[in-house]
Amino acid sequence: MATAFSDPIWRKPQTASTFQSLPNGERVDLAIVGGGIMGLSTALHAARLGLSVQVLDAGEIGQGASGLNGGQVIPGLKYDPEWLLEHFGPEHGEALVNFAASTADAVFELIRDEKLAVPFVRNGWIQAAHTEAALKAAVNRDRQWRARGADVRLLDAAEIAAKTGAQGYLGGWLDRRAGVIDPLAYTWELARVATAAGVRIAGHQKVVRLDKSDGVWRVSTENGVQLQAKAVVLATNAYTDGLIPGLAQTIVPLHSFQIATAPLPPNLAATILPEGQAVSDSRRILVYYRKSADGRLVLGGRGRMALPTSAGDWAHLERALRRLYPVLSGVDIEKRWFGRVAM
Q1: Assessment of whether the complete model's pTM goes beyond 0.90
Q2: Which residues touch 71 (CB under 8 Å, ≥6 apart)?
Q3: Is the CATH number of domain 72-181+253-342 3.30.9.10?
Q4: Of 212, 236, 273, 342, whose CB is crowded by the most CB atoms within 10 A?
């Protein structure tokens, strides 16, 4: 994903694990294609259940969406509990609601329990409302989650202005279960604990063919290496290609672009997201933002589908940043990058 015009703020940890080369003819219980958060988490849990596991990634660990995203950890789904229950029924709907409610806990408890070296702040996520309709939706969402005991509350105009330092919001909704992490550090730390649990990880091993015969999968890489596995998990998300015919046609890959300012001077840092929450706004083409561990403001949103060719391809985000924070008009944008997400 690296290009001349893509420079992420997140950096590979100096203590990142090194991995052994992939031996030809290896036999494992489970082969996982994709070494991002999804693939590494699956590998870790499978290994702790006693399975032998091999992870293969086409590039370097964390090079895709797992290491390029904004690092916002938010429980819930696009749809609220009542919608899920109505459309999926009491059994499956309730399972979806409970799963969605648990997702942020799963991440932060893993960081705590495994002592992962991941910078994080868990002070919540704000859904910022810029219209009366968005504010009404926030009231409805708040009612549903509060009824389930979630640690959430509504924000009025003065409160959201104080918590974000931004202009233009009528109010919003605060979900205290959420937080922010360094996503690339989290990905590499997952790789470290997975390796310690017995998982083998191989980067720069693009899988180009999957064949199944007599109940055994044969996995072939672009480098000519083959292995056999009882089961295969594809954890490729928006980077899914033609490995499984028709699978790529089930998703719509989109680009998310991000920018990061220079570290904010103390007087601005004290008024912009002073408590460290993550924010997403209510616009149809939304922007999302947070502060990084080194005090930068990081803001992202939808970007062009073609690969960027100049810093100007991030200009729409710079305009959004200065609409929200006119006071930042004199602060340099030092980082610009993008990644792919699947819909």
Answers
A1: yes
A2: 10, 180, 181, 182, 183, 186, 290, 298
A3: yes
A4: 236
